[in-house]
Design brief:
Blueprint lengths: L1 H26 L3 H39 L4
Helix pairs in contact: 1-2
Amino acid sequence: MIDTVFAKSAEPSTYAASLGVSFFGAITMNEWIAVGGLALGGMTFAANCYFKWLHYKLALRQTNKGASKNGRV
C-alpha cells in the first residue's frame, strides 16, 4: 500500500519539481540550485526503488509464511 501511494502521488510531482528547480537553476546560473534539483530527483528515484524492493520482500515473506503454516514447504 505504501508503494502504491508513493508511486501514484509523490513520484511524478517530485520529478516535475526537481526538473523545475534544475531548470530555474540553469536560467539563473546558480549551480547549487541546479544540482539540488537533480539531487531531489535522484533521491526520489532511490526512495521509489527502495519501496518497490521492500514491497516485494514483504510480499515474498507473507507468501512463504502462509505456505509453511499450511504445511506446504
